[in-house]
């Protein structure tokens, strides 16, 4: 870590707080406290003085008092600034150049002259009297004062737009999202500025106006000039369109080449909707390095990201809560994990702990909603999810989870409305598109369901569930070829020992009279079940060795001659048991018990065996011995398919006998 990182974070806390970016200030302060105490102590002596600090230079503040700034030479300033600024290579973002010395000096003088007005404006903004703040800052010209005036004017206009939007609630004139007509005028106020905070506002306004490419450019320029503004990073994450764009952006930087190494990790965390739920090895390596003693070993944000994206979430979150038991950020995501794992006790404990702390936080409402949902009290869950959306209209998880609850209650129309709200908030969230597909599928509108599933798979190309759902919709529509393609795509991300998709593919090929392909998928089901039974038998054989006290000698822990002899005896006994493997596997009870052990229905094995046997007997397969072996196993069991297997076994044996007696008659028998 560079020596000036703690000082840069301290400046970021102050600068973001001065500009009303409380979330960014909180993030920087938490990151500052996550640095090793020894590194923080070494920086205490270099803290800036309590005097005036200018925020105009596009770099972290100097450890010295900012009043010494004017005594430096232009060459010295330019060299130091160019060393501090590390731009992000992007086709839309040219390299930022520091402003000339005279411009920075004039800016500093303006801030000193307008200091009283700036403090007054900040006080008005903190009191949420945005119009008064605009009034008192109307004649100021410094970059900081202009930022505060424009930002307060934006907040006031947003408040009015939200009021007008709610006034038209439940009417046909209500737009999908609130419309702020003041955005064009606000954009003009910062359009030609190169101040990093003005560029942040410019990116915000451009994104709201759906000018995404220009917003990305402005956000990158702002980050290049001031890398510790967390709000700029989150805004950039909202601008990015897909995973390819993220990869291009991430690959253009060396993660640990500069003091902004933590910032290079931010884009990946802001675009999780493009990626798999588990992070890549490179992301895990970067996360672990950033959590090392050299960087931010106690970063709560990094711990949370590691927990949610790289597994072992419960243990990681307990460690995080031990450091800060009152941290509400990410508690909603953790509640989703507890919900999926059906950890009722921990979820109930969290709900009862956090609800008294801050009942008006949307994250807490989401946590309590998940608690009631897991208990099956869907009406109460919807009440809390709706409360979360009232507190924050853009709170995506609450809209999506509310839609899930309506689906559970079979209220498809209400679910569709909730999912549409989620899509309006963020069109890149695959869960909302997937939920819309499920809701329309419940209504039997498969054409609409396929449309929404296609959007979901575009955002989540390796999600097995979505491809299966899309394939089943195509099957209901009679478009079997498209259904087969969807099921094949589902196999790309499925467990190698999965059998449900193979059985569905086999049935689809059979409906298309493609019997060879159908038999191949059925044979895969048989192979998986048989392999599982072999694993179970070998495990049983090793257990038998352990029971006679010879297990330890098979682990190469022996040292004496006697130990060698006992080890050889153990291996011999193991081989004797292994020789019996084929005869043991011919018992249907053993195979069926193994199917149950590995969560594979025994009926699937029996059904696939019947289909493979029919293929070899009636549809041109020709391997009668294999068909006979399969039917002998089924006929000797207590499955529901015993009658069919017995009848088919008789016919197979007759064909085999006829083939041995007169091979030319076999072809006629196969066509019967």
TrEMBL record:
The keyword Cell cycle applies. GO terms for cellular component: anaphase-promoting complex. Keywords: Cell cycle, Cell division, Mitosis, Repeat, TPR repeat, Ubl conjugation pathway. TPR repeats lie at residues 362-395, 396-429, 430-463. Residues 7-307 form the Cdc23 domain. Residues 46-98 are annotated as: Disordered. It holds the Pfam family ANAPC8. Residues 78-89 have a biased composition (Polar residues). One of its GO terms (biological process) is protein ubiquitination. SMART domains: TPR. InterPro entries: APC8 (IPR007192), TPR-like_helical_dom_sf (IPR011990), TPR_rpt (IPR019734). This is Anaphase-promoting complex subunit 23. The gene is CDC23.
